[in-house]
Design brief:
Shape of chain A: globular
Number of strands of chain B: 13
Number of helices of chain A: 11
Oligomer: heterodimer
Number of helices of chain B: 10
Bound molecules: adenosine-5'-diphosphate, magnesium ion
Helix content of chain B: 25-40%
Order of helices and strands of chain A: HHHHHHHHHHH
Structural class of chain A: mainly alpha
Distance between the termini of chain B: 28 Å
Chain lengths: 234, 283
């Protein structure tokens, strides 16, 4: 009951903001794009066929980060409207609300990733690996939320921080393009391991890469949560 | 109901405390007011009492339990009206109330009923972003009531309201008191303090100077004088008498007997005159 009311209110908050409502549908646009474009450009540049997994990983990650961005917009709206003190005087612990929202955007990011992995048919990972890949992507949603909301003071800054964050997220994809062990240096970025799970370079067993990815990104999520709590409630 | 002893609070990066060693007690079922100018420390005190600021010094007991021993169920029993409006701009008034109601375990009053109390029934399905400041403040106010709390904390509940709506809110506050609720409120408006509060504390620069009923504050500080206005041959005359021994004052009695009296007033002090007299500052 109570969960439903909260989710419904959040959805209303999203859909009454045209730019946010648009963002929610971006994964579907990506799906269409990734179904239409590759067959066309691969005709002219067959070498691109080698980069299908790279491309897929980037779009999956952007999709989940976008969901995180949507939630950060709700939180920034709450910051703008000074709603945080109101939550502090409600009998439900604030962590419960955050957990609920974190789960919702993780599920959305997870489904969006699965949609892209299966829907585009670019790479066949098999069911269990696809699920693990989508899972590690989905962790990026809430960690993006917490990072953006910790640093941005308002929604305009939120957009700026999202762009900045997106660049940082995409940076380690360089690592999987490097065909030597030097690429592993990008492993200091948690997201390198997500890209690497999609495109294994063969230096480390795939299962281990996925495990590292899940652990590293869970740690990032936890740290960003702590940062958010500290920044918001002193 | 609320017992505060030697409470102090200093904001981070501030040298002087915003609340400085204050002590007071609020009894069950009374309306207790903090009257003081802007920046006196009223909101800071309220934020401590509602557990938003936890790094205070001193002792605070609410409902016979130290504040820091209260968990989240505290907020089932306590309602908070914030000084500034805070709602979801994109949600309607009713949606806002429904959203916040979903956080309570106890039964909450229906949004429609709450909105009707403050004259917002016509605006229930309007987005809050289209509301005026006064409408938002009324929404703030009823949100504090929705779970039927035993104690109400109201930070400047009537500020920014037109007289009619101010009246409406004051009536609701008095109704809540009649139901046995305990109410802590802050205000810089001496008329509100005078009308609503069973007892008021004057607060200035983080310090409490005096706590008493508005009535006895006025009695102690009023001048014991009577003002008479009467007409003689079409002219109006004023005359002032000492209240002491007025029954034996021949002149006073003669005027009462012979003249056409236009008005008689005792010179009551207003709370703000008393405030200036006691604290040396204006409200
Ligand atoms: N967040 C804050 N940080 C630092 N100082 C503050 C903060 N909020 C209020 N103050 C200061 O504390 C004092 C008391 O403020 P406040 O409790 O809001 O007063 P009132 O509610 O009586 O107007 C003021 O001097 C104010 O400038
Ligand atoms: Mg204040």
């Amino acid at each position: 009951m109570r969960t439903l009311v909260i989710v419904k209110s959040d959805i209303k908050n999203i859909f009454r903001d045209k730019s946010l409502a648009f963002v929610i549908f971006v994964p579907f646009i990506f799906l269409a794009l990734l179904r239409i474009a590759p067959p066309v450009y691969e005709q002219y540049a067959p070498v691109m066929e080698l980069y299908r997994a790279h491309i897929l990983s980037v779009f999956c990650l952007i999709s989940t980060a976008l969901m995180g961005f949507v939630l950060s917009f709700i939180l920034l709206e709450e910051k703008d409207q000074s709603l945080f003190p109101v939550f502090q005087v409600l009998p439900l612990p604030i962590g419960r609300l955050l957990l609920l929202r974190t789960l919702v955007i993780m599920i959305y990011g997870f489904l969006a990733s699965l949609l892209l992995i299966f829907g585009t048919g670019l790479v066949d990972f098999g069911i269990s690996k696809s699920i693990l890949l989508a899972l590690s992507c989905s962790l990026t949603g809430p960690s993006s939320t917490f990072i953006i909301t910790s640093f941005a003071r308002n929604k305009i800054e939120g957009v700026t921080f999202f762009k900045l964050l997106n660049t940082v997220l995409m940076l380690p994809v360089t690592g999987v393009f490097i065909k030597s062990k030097l690429g592993l240096l990008f492993g200091i970025f948690p997201h390198y391991w997500i890209f690497s799970s999609f495109v294994n370079q063969g230096f480390i067993p795939t299962n281990l890469v996925i495990l590292i990815s899940l652990i590293a990104n869970s740690i990032l999520l936890y740290l960003s949560y702590l940062l958010f709590i500290r920044k918001t409630y002193q | 109901m609320i017992k505060v002893e030697h409470l102090s609070y200093t904001y981070r990066e501030q040298k002087t405390p915003a609340v400085n060693d204050i002590s007071f007690e609020v009894k069950e079922g009374e309306i207790f007011g903090f009257l003081g100018p802007s920046g006196a420390g009223k909101s800071t005190t309220q934020k401590i009492l509602i557990k938003i600021f936890n790094d205070y010094t001193g002792d605070v007991q609410i409902m016979n339990k130290p504040l820091n021993q209260w968990g989240n169920d505290f907020y089932e029993k306590v309602g908070v009206g914030f000084e500034l409006p805070n709602h979801y701009a994109k949600l309607t008034a009713a949606e806002n109330l429904r959203f916040f109601a979903s956080f309570y375990r106890s039964k909450t009053i229906a949004p429609e009923k709450l909105l009707k109390m403050v004259g917002l029934e016509e605006d229930a399905s309007k987005k809050v972003e289209s509301f005026s400041k006064g409408m938002k403040m009324r929404l703030n106010f009823v949100r504090a009531l929705m779970h039927n709390p035993d104690i109400l904390f109201l930070d400047e509940p009537t500020s920014g309201l037109d007289p009619a709506n101010g009246r409406r809110l004051k009536d609701i506050i008095l109704e809540q008191k009649a139901k046995g609720k305990t109410i802590f409120l802050t205000t810089h408006n001496m008329y509100d303090a005078d009308e609503l509060c069973d007892r008021v504390s004057f607060i200035i620069d983080g310090k409490l100077s005096i706590t008493d009923t508005p009535h006895s504050l006025k009695l102690i500080n009023g001048q014991r004088k009577v003002n008479l206005e009467y007409g003689v041959n079409g002219n109006t005359r004023f005359i002032e008498f000492n209240m002491d021994g007025i029954g034996d004052n021949k002149e006073f009695l003669n005027i009462l007997k012979r003249e056409r009296i236009a008005s008689i007033h005792s010179l009551d002090a207003t709370l703000d005159e008393i405030f200036i007299k006691i604290t040396g500052k204006t409200l």
